[in-house]
Amino acid sequence: MSAVRVLVCDDQAMIRAGLTTIIDAQDDLEVVGECGDGVAAVELARTLRPDVVVMDIRMPDLDGIEATRRIAGASVSEPVKVLVVTTFNLDEYVYEALRAGASGFLLKDAPPSQLLHAIRTVASGAALIDPEVTRKLVGSYADRIRPATSNRSDSALSPRETEVLRLVAEGLSNAEIADVLVLSQQTVKTFVSRILTKLDLRDRVQIVVYAYRNGLVG
After folding, report:
1. Residues bearing 4-aspartylphosphate (predicted)?
2. The domain 144-213 is classified under which CATH number: 2.130.10.10, 3.40.630.10, 2.60.40.1180, 1.10.10.10?
């Protein structure tokens, strides 16, 4: 199998170098480019076509949110997967990055093993949401992100699918959901696929956003 091709975007040279060193040390991962601002991130994502872009939020010229929107947004014909790596206490815009199309996020103080797992997960087409970050970040902005009125379509879901949706929104993995509901992981995976199809959502990140926007979790 070919290595997962990664583009690293962070305006701090030391952090960028550290991420590159960690990623390049893996046999199945390869850093194909790096940059320190959002404009360069968009350009390199278009020219290099990496499998995953590791994206900081606060960067000069063009911030990581807008860069993510231009790389992975709904209007992009050939989107590239984006993993946001950010500092939770300083960054109030991670939710907006998820709305812009990011496939997941991690804290910058996460251990290297989590970063590598996140890159592999996002590259595989899945989404990664740190449960702790999900609860603290999305939960803290729940009132802000819920619309005053909601045109909900989750009535199409079965009771079990709604239950699975809530657990996904709380940051549980398929294995954890299987334990809670006493189901097989394959059955949970099937439920998640049905939820995505019925609600016309792209991935688990959008499930989280949907659930909080519509008051299904709090």
Report:
1. 56
2. 1.10.10.10
